[in-house]
């Protein structure tokens, strides 16, 4: 079965030095001095879990690049049939962000834009995002973000779906938006946005599948079967670990195929 991981990253030394990462590593059982994984190691893990394609995130925050767009493009070039990238952008320099999105979109190596609200301590309805949204619409790229509480010791309020993400969906009806990390503890808000906005999708990154909230699992099995995509947040969680108890979810075969790969192929034009 076709499986696509819609949220992964290849960390750099800059990324791994961030002090906020320590709590997330501890939470996922990776305390101590975490190693920087190689592309070859990641590909081996993908193969072991039958992952067809992984979508790699660049990370840019107020202090600069943690994983640069160049880093992601280099990784994609090593295995173009297995990787695609997400562009990150500098919210402090809106025209530079717009030009970066336009330029990277032309390469065919990037299939979306991802910005992490808690990294900036700015909710997604802040005016500094709006040039990025316009650039995404012009380039035909989905905008991907984090919703719900944070694993790192950062404020979770920026990940609350209503009103912050709802404002964006109202202001940009042509923008495809993907909320990553399920959105707990605001699952009701997440599901209500999916009902209200046909251009809003969710991914399950940062969750092993058997621990998905019960209300969210019901949504996947019913009206949300075309709106939810599989993700890991690798290397914080491996695909093998996330998928280990997939059968416990008791998904119908068509729902499983949509969730694991078909929805991602459609949303990201893979």
Please characterize this protein's 3D structure.
The chain is of the alpha/beta class and 270 residues long. It has a single domain (4-267), classed as TIM Barrel (Alpha-Beta Barrel), CATH 3.20.20.140. The protein contains twelve helices and ten strands. Helix 5 packs parallel to helix 7 (130-139).
Topology:
Elements: E1 4-8, H1 13-16, H2 21-27, H3 39-48, E2 53-57, E3 59-61, E4 64-67, H4 69-78, E5 83-87, H5 94-105, E6 110-114, H6 117-120, H7 130-139, E7 143-146, H8 161-171, E8 177-180, H9 187-196, E9 200-203, H10 214-221, E10 228-229, H11 239-243, H12 253-267
Parallel strand pairs: 1-2, 2-5, 5-6, 6-7, 7-8, 8-9, 9-10
Antiparallel strand pairs: 3-4
Q: What labels describe this entry?
A:
single chain; 270 residues; alpha/beta; TIM Barrel; eight-stranded parallel β-sheet; two-stranded antiparallel ribbon; 12 helices; 10 strands; 39% helix
CATH topology assignment: TIM Barrel
Count the helices. How many?
12
Give the second-level CATH assignment, the architecture: Alpha-Beta Barrel
Elements, N to C (H/E): EHHHEEEHEHEHHEHEHEHEHH
Shape: globular
Major sheet size, sense and barrel closure:
8 strands, parallel
Share in β-strands: 15-25%
Strand order of the largest sheet: 1-2-5-6-7-8-9-10
* Number of separate domains: 1
The name of the CATH superfamily reads Metal-dependent hydrolases
Please give the radius of gyration in angstroms.
Answer: 17 Å
Strand runs, count: 10
The stretches of 5 or more residues where confidence is low (pLDDT under 50) are none
- Mean pLDDT, as a whole number? 95
- Measured as a percent range, the helix fraction is 25-40%
Q: Tell me the name of the CATH class.
A: Alpha Beta
SS-based class: alpha/beta
Kindly report how far apart the N and C termini lie: 16 Å
């Amino acid at each position: 079965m076709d499986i696509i991981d819609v949220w992964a990253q290849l960390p750099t030394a800059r990324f791994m030095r961030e002090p906020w990462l320590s709590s997330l590593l501890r939470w996922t059982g990776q305390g101590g001095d975490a190693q920087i994984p190689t592309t070859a190691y990641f590909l081996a893990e993908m193969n072991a879990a039958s992952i067809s394609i992984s979508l790699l995130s660049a990370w840019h925050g107020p202090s600069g690049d943690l994983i640069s767009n160049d880093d992601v493009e280099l990784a994609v070039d090593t295995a173009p049939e297995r990787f695609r990238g997400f562009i990150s952008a500098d919210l402090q320099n809106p025209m530079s962000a717009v030009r970066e999105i336009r330029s990277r979109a032309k390469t065919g190596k990037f299939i979306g834009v991802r910005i992490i609200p808690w990294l900036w301590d700015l909710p997604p309805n802040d005016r500094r995002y709006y040039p990025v949204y316009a650039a995404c619409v012009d380039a035909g790229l989905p905008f991907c973000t984090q919703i719900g509480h944070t694993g790192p010791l950062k404020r979770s309020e920026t990940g609350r779906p209503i009103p912050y993400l709802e404002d964006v969906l109202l202001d940009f009806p042509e923008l495809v938006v993907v909320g990553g990390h399920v959105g707990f503890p605001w699952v009701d808000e997440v599901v209500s946005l999916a009902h209200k906005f046909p251009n809003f999708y969710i991914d399950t990154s940062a969750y092993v599948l058997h621990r998905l909230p019960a209300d969210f699992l019901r949504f996947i099995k019913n009206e949300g079967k075309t709106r939810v995509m599989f993700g890991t947040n690798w290397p914080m969680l491996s695909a093998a670990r996330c998928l280990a108890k997939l059968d416990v979810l008791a998904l119908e075969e068509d729902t499983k195929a949509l969730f694991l790969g078909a929805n991602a192929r459609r949303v990201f034009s893979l």
